[in-house]
Amino acid sequence: MSTENQACAKIEEAIAQFAIQGSLKEKIPYGNGHINDTFLLTYEVEGGEKQYILQRMNHNIFKNPQQLMENMVNVTEYLSRAIQEQGGDPQRETLNIVKTSSGDSYYKDSTGNYWRMFLFIGRALCLEMVESVKDFYDSAAAFGNFQRMLADYPAGTLHETIPNFHNTPSRFQDFKKAVEEDKLGRAKLAEKEIAFALAREAETSALTGLLKEGKLPLRVTHNDTKLNNILFDEETKKALCIIDLDTVMPGLSLYDFGDSIRFGASTGAEDEQDLSKISIDLELFEAFTNGFLTGCAGSLTDKEIEMLPMGAKLMTYECGIRFLADFLVGDTYFKIHREGHNLDRARTQFKLVADMEAKWDQMKAIVEKVRNTQK
Ligand code: ADP
Ligand code: GN1
Ligand code: MG
Fold first, then answer.
1. Where are the domains of the chain?
2. Pairing of strands 124-125, 239-242
3. Which atom of ligand 2 is nearest to the CA of 262?
4. Which pLDDT does position 3 carry in this prediction?
5. For domain 126-373, is the CATH number 3.90.1200.10?
6. CA distances from 75 to 33, 176, 353, 368 (A)
7. CATH architecture observed for domain 3-122
8. Which string of b and e fits 126-161 if b means at least 16 CB within 10 Å?
9. 118-138, pLDDT tens digit by residue?
10. Residue 88 Cα to ligand 1 middle (Å)
11. Average pLDDT, the chain
12. Quick one: which ligand is closest to 334's CA?
């Protein structure tokens, strides 16, 4: 049995903890997340079916699942109220946690694995690649709006679910350690990539430095804003719900902006092996900038707007060194589906960084143009 299968061996035990009406018809692995084990459960109920998402939380990564779920309960309840006040549908526009029969937000199974359940948001699409400029604009407005909705959230009550999550200098130190130790002798397979990453050390503190100096505000941010962490309404095609709230923590607006660009404004998939297909699509970059500023509705400072291109570049670079470090230590963090998967992912990120560097003046000009049109 693979370690993943072993970890999910108690799925039946977990399912039994949730007082779901109807009879379980099907349970299938679901989605393309890199972190948790996600299943779609279908129950037969009178007159039809009802579906749920069951997740085994990755407690190797999230060291304190109890604190994480405390964040999740509080944030989803807060968002629910905000959505209701805006006349929206809180059952579809945010995650809804299904409690266990004993009223808990998660269940710890007899082997120490942690499980949680959500209402499945149906009649919705999850995209792995941008299909139209409009979709990307909508996702940007939704992520901007998400940040705005949480503007008054008491940030001090949020637990830090992964310390230093977007602290790029700290990520760089982890990466350097992985290179120096080279436990599996894999560094020789990635000499070019390692050199590329090491050559950019000076830039790693471009955002954290400004934060320290008080020149960028700390906000409550999502921190994992890739396109498959948002659902679109199948009918209206509008952005519907932001999911994957595990990393909602105090952070910079630039983390959310940058991570979306890294994934969605690339002309190729995150794990594309043909690097000639990877570049930054400036039309998508512009659309996202427009949508994000609209969603944030004037709440971003001049400095934040000025730093948007750096947010994009640094989040892409950071993800690249995370993938590469994981390749070097033996793929212990991100799920992989083939040999060298994390190295392939690192390569696309660095190709994108190089392309952003080549198009730097254009990216800056786009941001200024959008800033001026939105004044
Ligand atoms: P990971 O942290 O592993 O990325 P996610 O929470 O993002 O896990 O879930 C993985 C995938 O499962 C998502 O990309 C999405 O396709 C799907 N998903 C998660 N929660 C829901 C939900 N409540 N309704 C519909 N789909 C969901
Ligand atoms: C992970 O959980 P998922 O698959 O949405 C990761 C992100 C990375 C992303 C790269 C908690 O996101 O930080 O940017 O993979 N999430 C965590 O695709 O580490
Ligand atoms: Mg996800």
1. 3-122, 126-373
2. unpaired
3. 14
4. 67
5. yes
6. 21, 35, 33, 33
7. 2-Layer Sandwich (3.30)
8. bbeebeebebbbbbbbbbbbbbbbbeebeeeebeeb
9. 999 999 999 999 999 999 999
10. 21
11. 97
12. 2
Model confidence band, residue 375 (pLDDT cutoffs 50, 70, 90):
confident
Ligand 1, atom 5: closest residue by C-alpha: 244
Give the pLDDT mean for 226-241: 96
Q: Confirm if 247 and 222 have CB atoms less than 8 A apart.
A: yes
The pLDDT, as a whole number, for residue 295 is: 97
The domains spanning 3-122 and 126-373 adopt the same CATH topology: no
Is the full-model pTM beyond 0.90? Answer: yes
How far is Cα 143 from Cα 300, in angstroms, rounded to an integer? Answer: 13
Q: Is 321 in the pocket of ligand 2 (CB under 6 A)?
A: no
The CB of 229 under 6 Å from ligand 2? The reply is yes
Going by alpha carbons, the residue nearest to atom 12 of ligand 2 is 34
What are 337's two structure tokens?
A: 């589906």
Q: Tell me what pLDDT residue 330 has.
A: 98
pLDDT exceeds 70 at position 351? yes
Which structure tokens are listed for 183?
Answer: 């436990």
| Residue nearest atom 17 in ligand 1 by C-alpha distance | 31
| Ligand 2 lined by 248 (C-beta under 6 Å) | no
C-beta 34 within 6 A of ligand 2: yes
> Which chain residues have CB less than 5 Å from ligand 3, an ion?
33, 229, 244
Instruction: Round to whole Å and give the CA distance between 61 and 184.
Output: 21
At 65-121, the pLDDT tens digits run: 999 999 999 999 999 999 999 999 999 999 999 999 999 999 999 999 999 999 999
**Closest residue to atom 4 of ligand 1, CA basis:** 33
